[in-house]
Specification:
Structural class: alpha/beta
Strand content: 15-25%
Largest sheet: 5 strands, mixed
Number of strands: 16
Radius of gyration: 24 Å
Strand order of the largest sheet: 6-5-4-7-11
Number of helices: 14
Shape: globular
């Protein structure tokens, strides 16, 4: 058993410190590593030699010099391992394959109709992995909506998928023997913001996603607050007494009133355009179908859409204001598929939240929209796998 202070443990801590520094800087020389880590030149030299021998790190050339010998640059060896990321949506599954640094090598989206079982998802993951089995696999990340316990890899309850108490990590590991990380999809999205988005510049943040569901994530001291799952279920705060029936079984949840499906239904109710009503009658219960209906509605009846999105902006503004009042975040990020229509609601929603927040809370918080795009939902879990395997110490 390793004890704190043993040579092996100290070496591991130093090795992971160096790996993280190389990862964060993309490329760096040995002198800069000494300065940034506080380790001695001898320690840096020994560990770098070991990492090069393991093929985790490689030298790529020389940096500019202000005088004397040009320093040799070090980078992570991208080809050392591969990582698979999956995002299970309603009506589709996104698959991504990345290198060791998280750069996307291959991506694929598979659509499905109706519901999908955990067994089918595991089979699809196994098939995807089989295409790339020639490289060492560092891990598999799966982002799922609903209450997810990341500590056990269990989907406790995904109302959108109709899953309950699914031990997804164990199911996948039986087929693919690697590190498995199962995470709530909004938490995965938020991890992407912490690694590559502006959330990394703030201590406390709130992430709110608008789409087929409405989700949330809390970042406290630059860490996602997950507990054992269920934290940040913004979409299930009640906003309308005895309102629309929600997938969770309650009525009047924000998600039931303001999801993509709810927006589509309200546009159908508001419009008098016969062609648009006919299109709505064929809309399926999938994110792709509902988004396509809204796009067509904007072309066929812009007036009705503006009215619906005006109401939507107030609902989202109220939710944002409440979250700002309760949590007093430094940073508030909005993401999700509904941002495609941001010109119809975003400005009004932000103005409402800032104007009506308590005291100076509305003026202090920085509110922005996602710039990382669709892959952010999948990449967050991949970044976590990199961190766990390369940077975290086994103490």
């Amino acid at each position: 058993m390793q004890t704190i202070g043993s040579k092996e443990l100290i070496r591991e801590i130093n090795e992971k410190l160096i790996l993280k520094e190389i990862y964060l800087n993309k490329k760096i020389d040995r002198t800069s590593l000494i300065k940034n880590t506080g380790l001695s030149g001898g320690t840096i030299t020994k560990i770098i030699s070991c990492l090069i021998e393991k093929q985790l790190v490689k030298e790529i050339g020389e940096a500019d010099s202000t005088g004397g010998r040009k320093p040799i640059l070090l980078v992570l060896n991208k080809d050392y391992a591969r990582i698979i990321g999956i995002k299970i949506g309603v009506g589709y599954i996104d698959f991504i394959l990345t290198d060791l640094t998280g750069d996307v090598i291959f991506s694929q989206t598979i659509k499905y109709e109706g519901s999908i079982s955990p067994q089918k998802v595991v089979s699809m993951i196994t098939e995807f992995h089989a295409k790339f089995h020639d490289k060492h696999l560092l891990g598999i990340s799966v982002a799922v909506s609903g209450i997810v316990n990341p500590n056990t890899g269990t989907v406790v309850n995904s109302f959108l998928l109709g899953w309950k108490d699914v031990e997804l990590a164990q199911m996948i590991k039986k087929e693919v023997d690697t590190y498995i990380f199962v995470v709530n999809d909004v938490d995965s999205f938020s991890l992407s913001q912490l690694y590559n988005g502006n959330a990394r510049f703030y201590k406390n943040s709130v992430v709110m996603t608008l789409g087929v569901g409405i989700g949330g994530s809390l970042i406290i001291d630059k860490k996602i607050h997950t507990a054992d799952g269920g934290v940040g279920e913004i979409g299930h705060m009640s906003v309308v007494p005895n309102g629309n029936k929600c997938t969770c079984g309650s009525r009047g949840c924000l998600e039931a009133e303001s999801s993509i499906a709810a927006i589509a239904a309200r546009i159908n109710k508001a419009t008098t355009v016969a062609e648009l009503k006919k299109i709505f009658s064929s809309v399926s219960n999938t994110e792709i179908s509902e988004l396509e209906f809204i796009r067509k509605a904007i072309d066929l009846d812009n007036k009705a859409c503006k009215k619906v999105f005006k109401e939507f902006s107030v609902e989202i503004g109220i939710a944002m204001k409440n979250l700002i009042n309760i949590l007093a975040p430094d940073y508030f990020l909005l993401g999700g598929e509904t941002l495609e229509f941001r010109d119809l609601f975003m400005k009004d929603a932000i103005e409402f939240a800032k104007k009506n927040a308590f005291g100076t809370l509305g003026t202090k918080v920085c509110i922005e929209t996602d710039t990382l795009g669709r892959n952010a939902w999948t990449l967050g879990g991949i970044y976590k796998i990199i961190e766990v395997n390369l940077f975290e110490n086994r103490i």
